[in-house]
Amino acid sequence: MDVQSWAILILLGTFFLMIILRFPIAYAVALSAVFSLLAQGKSLSAVCQQMVKGINSFSLMAVPFFITMGILMGTGGISEKLIALANTCVGWMRGGLAMVNIVASYFFGGISGSAAADTASLGSILIPMMVDQGYDDDFSTAVTITSSCEGLLVPPSHNMVIYATTAGGISVGSLFLAGYIPGALLAVSLMVGSYIISVRRKYPKGDKFSIVKLIKQLATSFWALAAVIIVVIGVVAGIFTATESAAIAVIYSLIVSVFIYKGLDWKGVWRVLDDCVHTLSIVLILIAASSAFGYCLTTLHVPDLAARAITTITDNPIILALLLDLIVLILGCIMDMAPIILIATPILLPIAVQIGIDPIQFGIIMVLNCGIGLLTPPVGAVLFIGSAVSKVPMERVVKATLPFYVCMVVTLLLITFVPSISMFLPNLFK
To answer: End-to-end CA distance of the chain, in Å?
Structure first.
């Protein structure tokens, strides 16, 4: 075995071994890169250089700002207003509170950009409310965790910024636009599944629809929804960059949360900033470690070897697209979202482009794939959060989520094989 093959074996073998042994993902990524460089006889200074290079990016400055914005708005009294707006829109349907949960996640996702934040914030309010009105607790939890993945697709999503940086040369504004229709499609798919279950189990309806109430709730929720408008329109129109829009959104969120909705005082703001630093430290360590891992992948030509290996299986683009989905879904079962994007994108994106998938469309495919991974054991972070919030055993939550897995996979296949779902808005505003 030559040095290159030996180094690749050490890089990937030690990485997956440490994942199986439940090492923290950042340690697994960084240490496997170190072992691989040692096997090649290279200086370990390359690890430090690549880690610093990985986070020394102007585009990545948008990530802490979007995280701060999401936490500010999420803890600033906005959840109740978005739930009330969603209830006015869809609460009248059979299984109305399940529909409210799904639509509220679409609204809230456009503010938090985080499935975990969505589950923790909305779930703590809606799951007890649903149980009190006669919904099963496992069903309520399943609806909450699956609908939280809408927030990964609806901008502003910091995971899209990470993908754009990793892919290189991808427009963040185009990615933001590309997420709206897939996010809505996922919401509709989950609503269809919820409606079928609600009819079979005879879950209750809500109050009748009222246009007057809808207008009132829109007026109340306007300040929250305007944050998304500022970010997306500002970036798409070229008024400011994604990083500048994120910084403006933080200032706006602070003003709305403290002075308009008054859900936060200044002591609360300091607690929010403490949470932001904690979350950001995890994200940046992952990005830095993944940069060193990506350096090893590139110098060892792993993306080229993987592309040749996969394309030798078949040259059918449909089967290759399904294989790409399957690979990311499997990775989602054992890894968190950010590491998958950082590690798998350089390997899989060239194959996707080769079979005619646009890099922007592939970004949406990656994000939804990783979102499904957040709900699958053994590493499904959102699955654990939902179980903890509802106090329902994880085994019951997984069983109740099975019909919604079907809805999400159907949505994933539509996004994979119908490019216009993702590309319509980017092409329209190109």
So the answer is: 49
